[in-house]
Amino acid sequence: MPVPVATRAVPFFDYQAFYTRQAEMFDRAMKGVLTRGAFILQQEVRDFEAALADYLGVRHAIGVANCTDALIIGLRVAGIGPGDEVIFPSHTFVASPSSIHWVGARPIPVDMGEDGLIDPSAIEAAITPKTKAVMPVSLNGRTCKFDAIQEVCDRHGLVIVEDSAQALGSRFQGKAAGTFGAIGTFSFYPAKILGCFGDGGAIVTDDDDLAHQARLYRDHGRDEATGQVVQWGLNSRLDNLQAAVLLAQFEHYPETIARRREIASMYHEGLGGLPQLKLPPAPGADPDHFDTYQNYELCADRRTELASHLREQGIGTLIQWGGKACHQHEALGLPSSPLPRTEEFFQRCLMLPVNLFVTNDDVAYVIDHIRGFYDN
Ligand SMILES: *Cc1c(COP(=O)(O)O)cnc(C)c1O
Asked: 376 CA distance to ligand 1 centroid (A)?
């Protein structure tokens, strides 16, 4: 039998193409900033914040250095600190619990529901007299079921600080991820749907006072109007150059989301019916959800073998976060009681390429090779 040769390269994410595909647009945006020497908290940051707030239908957006900082600042301004417990889903990136750790509070991991997102009944079961807040995480461009979460939090007087790093533009019952809690947070890491050329993040809120405090925290505790230091702060500003890069792309954001939904539909059609796979919901399958497919993550039998088979065909996949839930990072010393749904998920999960560099032919190629793997 001849050795199979990959006839195509479908990388999981193409960091070079991110710039080169739209080099002219980015050059124009960056040159404007560079020639003006407008580096820190300049017009582009203000314009991007205004565009983001407007898009989400929220009063305030505050650009910060990254989403981890957005979570830390968000928890602080929401009044979370030493002695408090914050409930979060163990199915998330380590940045969610580390932000809780760095405000001096205790991160309490809970299990996910059928939908892969925090289980509202698990929140309820983990509440103690010390619980102050919940951090729901809207993963893969799907917003958590906030009706049930809100109900539990209202009943127990808990604050919601959302990790919506992966969910810009995603909606539940028509309302945008990041706008359900007291605070919402976004990441502009390059591989996020809206990415910049380095790190970037944002805090969003409807609360004027929380927004004011967040602006103080990100800039050394200095009051914007007077320049006076009015409290202890940090340096966590969104670079003006990154804001320009984000603004340029943000104009085309609805098309970006539409293309991702189109790719998700193609995967859904092409892979549907394979008993070895559990696919994410197709776009529009549930009228409550508008999904943006930050990632296309499925669960697969023989997941690791499938990934190596695809790699031989030039197809990049990703086992998210090294295949571990947060409570499985022993070094962090999080409560380690078993979270069965989350643990099973991490044995089977795999992400397929879904981004603007993937062509329809690429998607067909990926589908063929997954079907081929299970046919043999
Ligand atoms: C990317 C990500 C973060 C962290 O964002 P940074 O901007 O890299 O700090 C936090 N939570 C989740 C779920 C993420 O995917």
From this structure: 38
CA of 11 to the centre of ligand 1 (A): 21
Question: Residue whose CA is closest, atom 2 of ligand 1?
Answer: 165
Whole-angstrom Cα distance, residue 343 to residue 360?
33
Q: pLDDT tens digit string along 232-256? A: 999 999 999 999 999 999 999 999 9
Ligand 1 pocket (Cβ < 6 Å) reads: 66-68, 92-93, 95-96, 137, 163, 165-166, 187, 189, 199, 201
Average pLDDT, the chain: 97
**Residue 12 belongs to some domain of the structure:** no
- Note whether residue 2 is domain-resident: no
Please report, for residues 54, 101, 114, 177, the alpha-carbon distance to residue 144 in angstroms, rounded to integers and kept in the order given.
22, 23, 11, 8
pTM of this structure? 0.97
Q: What pLDDT score was predicted for residue 287?
A: 97
Q: Which of 190, 206, 169 lies closest to 56, judged by CA?
A: 169
Q: Is residue 159 within 8 Å of residue 174, measured between CB atoms?
A: no
Q: So what's the pLDDT on residue 376?
A: 78
Q: b or e along 190-224 (b: 16 or more beta carbons within 10 Å of the residue's beta carbon)?
A: bebbbbbbebbbbbbbbbeebbbbbbbbbbeebee
Residue 6 reports pLDDT greater than 70: yes
pLDDT tens profile 113-136: 999 999 999 999 999 999 999 999
Query: 76 with 220, same domain?
Result: yes
Q: What is the tally of structural domains in the chain?
A: 2
- For the chain, what's the residue count? 376
User: CATH no. for residue 317?
Assistant: 3.90.1150.10
Residues 294 and 213 occupy one common structural domain: no
